[in-house]
Amino acid sequence: MSDVEYRQSAFTPPAGATDILLVRHGESAPAVPGRPFDLVDGQGDPELAPAGRVHAERVGRRLADERLDALYVTNLRRTSETAAPLATRLGLVPQVEKDLREVHLGEFEGGLFRQKVAQNDPVIQRMHSEGRWDVIPGAEPAEALRDRVAGAIGRLAAAHPDERIAVFTHGGVIGEIMSIASGSLPMAFLGASNGSISQIVVTAERWIVRRFNDTAHLDGGLDEQPAALS
C-alpha cells in the first residue's frame, strides 16, 4: 500500500493571468412613460435608484478586504455611482473603459426597453428566441457587441497581468463575457442581478469562468431577482 496521497488542489490563476471581478451596477432609476432617460452617446443614462445605492454600499463592504489593483467603470453613471463606495474604501480612482458600456438598444433606448419587456412585446420574444439584440430596430448587432467586449477585456488583461481588478459594468455585457468564456448560447447568462459579482480569469489562451451572479452580500440570497437592462 502506498502512503502517497493526492489531494484535490485549490484553483490558482495561471502565471500572467488577470483575475477580473465583474460587478453589475446597482438598481437604476425606474423608467416612466413620457420621461425618457437622459442619453450619453445615444444610450440611456439613469442614475441609481435608492435601492441601487444600497447595492453599491453592500458591494463596497463585500470587496473592501479583497486585494484589488484597479477599478474600472463605463461612461454611464450608474457604474461609477456603484463603484464609488468601494473606491472610497480602497483609495482607488476608477478608470473608464467605454467599450464595456451596455448593449445599445436602438429604438428601445431611454427606458422603453423595460416597458417592452414588461409587456412581453413580440420583438422581445423574437430577441430571446433568436439570441440577437439587433432584432430591435437600430440595436447593436451581435457581432459588433462581441468584438467590442472581447477587445476591451483583452486590453484590460494585457494591462494587468498577475493582478486582480474589479470592473463595474452592465447586465448585457456580463452576459456576453460569460457567453464568450463558456461558449454558451449568446443570451444564456442574462440573469445577473443588480449588485451581483461574476468572475473570470483571462489568460492568453482562454477565459476561465470562476463565478456568476454571486449575491451573497445582498438581502435576497438565492432568491435575488434579475432585472431588466438599463
UniProtKB/TrEMBL annotation:
InterPro entries: His_Pase_superF_clade-1 (IPR013078), His_PPase_superfam (IPR029033), PGM_Phosphatase (IPR050275). Gene3D superfamilies: Phosphoglycerate mutase-like. Pfam families: His_Phos_1. It comes from the Bacteria. CDD domains: HP_PGM_like. PANTHER family: BROAD-SPECIFICITY PHOSPHATASE YOR283W-RELATED (PTHR48100), PHOSPHATASE C1620.13-RELATED (PTHR48100:SF44). This is Histidine phosphatase family protein. It comes from Saccharopolyspora endophytica. The lineage of its organism: Bacteria, Bacillati, Actinomycetota, Actinomycetes, Pseudonocardiales.
